[in-house]
Amino acid sequence: MTKKIKKKAVSAILTMAFISISTAIPVKAATPPTTVQMSSTYTYDEMNMDIAELCALYPGIVSSGSIGTTVQGRSIPLVILGNPAAPHSIMIQASIHGREYIVSQTTMATVEYYARQFSAGNCQDVLSSTCFYIVPMANPDGVTIAQSSAPEWKANANGIDLNRNFPVGWEMTKGSSAPGAANFKGYSPASEPETIALMSLATARDYSCYINYHQQGNIIYYDDDLTSSVTSALSTILAATVKNINRYPMVNTSGTNASGTTTYGGFGDFILMGLQKPGITVECGSAYGIRGQSQSSSIYSRNADTWAAAARLFAQ
C-alpha cells in the first residue's frame, strides 16, 4: 500500500469513527458502588469475594471463571459481564503490575456499576451488542507482595515484569539484568504463566478492542510501531472516545519504541503489533499503592462510563 493510499484509508476510517462518536448515546453518570468498597486497600481475597457476590446478585449478567494459575498457585479470575452470545466483545485487564492494584478496585467497581445498570433495564443497547471479558487482577502474586512486604513491587513472584515479557519486540527490550521488583523482562519471552494466560484469553475470540488499566499519569497511550493503517486509526478513535469521557490527554507511542524512549514486550505491544487489533492503555491517577488510595473513587467515576462508549463505538 502506498503512503497516499494508506493516508486515504486512515482518513476515511477516522471520519466514520468521529461520526459514530457524535451520534453515540450518552450514558448515565456512574453511581458509587455498594458491594465493592473504595476506602481501603483492595486485596486478592476481597476481590474474589466480590466476584462471587456479584455473580450471585446478578445471575445472567455477571459470571466468572479463571484464565490460569500464577507462579504461587493463585487462580487468575476472569469476570464475564454480559451475554457471551453477544455479537461483539471487549477484553479489559488491570493490575499487570503489582503495585498498581487500585485499578483492580476501580475495575471491579465498574463491573458492579454496569451490572446494576443492566439489571435495571438501562444501557440495553450495550448489553445486547457487547460482552466484556475482564481480568481485574492480572498479577495476583505481585499485588500480594506489594501489599504485604514490598510496596514498589511491579513484577510477578519470579521477579519478572510481566509487561515486558510478551513475545513482541522482546529481544529489543532493555531494563534490569536480573529478577527483582521491576523492569526485568525474563530469560525468554512468554516465560511466565501469567503472560501465557493473558495471551490465551486475548486470542480466544475476535475482540473489538482491548483496554488496559495501569497507574499512574492520567493519560491514554494509543497506537504503536508497525501497526497497520486500520489498527492505527481504530486505536486513535478508541482513545479519543475514552478521552471524551475521562478527559485524560492522549499520548501516541508510535515511534517512541523505535527511538529507544520506551520498551517493547508489553501486553499493549502484543495487541497492537502482534495481533493488529485496536487497544489503549489508560494510566490512572497520580499515585499508586497506599499513596493513591484516596484517588480510587475519582478514578472510578472518571472512567466507568468509558466501557459503554467503547462498546457503542464498535457496535455501530
Q: What do these coordinates show?
A:
- The structure is a single chain.
- The protein has 316 residues and is an alpha/beta fold.
- 38% of the residues lie in helices and 15% in strands.
- The chain contains 10 helices and 8 strands.
- A hairpin with a 5-residue loop joins strand 1 and strand 2 (75-81).
- Helix 2 (44-57) packs parallel to helix 3 (102-119), helix 3 (102-119) packs across helix 9 (296-303) and helix 7 (229-246) packs antiparallel against helix 10.
Keywords for this structure?
316 residues; alpha/beta; 38% helix
CATH top-level class: Alpha Beta
SSE class: alpha/beta
Give the end-to-end Cα distance, rounded to a whole number of Å: 27 Å
CATH architecture: 3-Layer(aba) Sandwich
Inertia-based shape: globular
Stated plainly, the CATH topology is called Aminopeptidase
The number of helical segments is 10
**How much helix is in the residues?**
25-40%
Oligomer: single chain
Q: Give the overall pLDDT as a whole number.
A: 92
Spell out the helices and strands N to C.
HHEEEHHEHHEEHEHEHH
Radius of gyration: 18 Å
Annotated CATH homologous superfamily:
Zn peptidases
